[in-house]
Amino acid sequence: MSYKIIVDSCGELPESYKKDEHFERVPLVLDIDGHHVVDDETFDQKDFLRRVSESPNCPKSSCPSPERYLEAYTCEADNVYAVTLSAELSGSYNSAELGKKLYLEEKGQKNIHVFNSCSASIGQTLIAMKIEECEKAGMAFEQVIETVDSYIAGQNTYFVLESLEALRKNGRLSNLKAFVANALNIKPVMGATPIGTICQLDQARGINRALKKMVEYITKDLKNPAEKLLAISHCNCPERAKLVKEELLKHVPVKEVLILDTAGVSSLYASDGGIIVVV
Questions:
Q1: How many Å apart are CA 251 and CA 271, to the nearest integer?
Q2: Residue 230: in which H helix or E strand, if any?
């Protein structure tokens, strides 16, 4: 049967997937001091990061409307899947579910399922790739859902931030804590909980030490590495991403490594210099 995979724009897609008719990105909209940025192929990361660094305010994001998801669901594919940013971080999941309800009410029965990634960025990418793998294997719709739900439950997300400013600006960190951390060059090692909220795993002085701590956590947590696709997304720091890849491969012989630059929403969360790893 034919299929379509819809990913909200917090998830990055490799270039080949952007040209594949089986995939569609549904953009969120970013707002920085009244300047609206659509998170699609027109996104200018350099300009966005400049605006963020110059502003005392945190950028805001608006999730796609239910009508936009309805539009994406309206296609010839028999099986339609949506993969959204963690429902704990955005309204995108609820919007996708409302779009599904609208479709079923207005256009009739169709196989549509919305996956809450409980992650973000490259984590959504891996989920989309898993859906594709299941579809190509000829799995039935319900079997794809069961397999991918199990995959999501076993997925782990980690990230290290160059700066705590984004967390301070959006109220997740006090001004005093951010000031002290920046003054002491403390970099947090962050992760995602099983339900998709953000937690701090550790911290270190200096970005390189923080990245090494992150590698230690990944190495400790990773099961059956030879079967895993490891994904790294970076915000404007390809050399740092390459370093993380090399350090990880010293410890875990994974099947494959995917590296992508962050798009708009992920750039907002990661900030300039941030690294996200999902496996």
A1: 27
A2: strand 229-234
192-239, pLDDT tens digit by residue? Answer: 999 998 888 998 999 999 999 999 999 999 989 999 999 999 999 999
Q: What is the mean pLDDT of residues 18-37?
A: 95
Give all strands of the β-sheet with 275-278 in edge-to-edge order. Answer: 198-205, 186-192, 157-160, 275-278, 229-234, 256-261
How far is C-alpha 96 from the geometric centre of its chain's CA atoms?
Answer: 16
Tell me, yes or no, if the pTM score tops 0.85. yes
* More confident position, 81 or 178: 81
| 148 and 245 share one domain | no
Total domain count for the chain?
A: 2
Q: Which residue spans within 139-197 are E strands per DSSP?
A: 157-160, 186-192
SS3 141: helix
CB atoms within 10 A of CB 175: 9
- pLDDT reported for residue 161: 84
Calculate helix-pair angle for 122-136, 141-153, nearest 10 degrees: 150
Single-letter code of the amino acid located at 141:
F
pLDDT(171) > 70 = no
Task: Mark whether 214 and 90 lie in a shared domain.
Answer: no
Structure tokens at 33: 């001091």
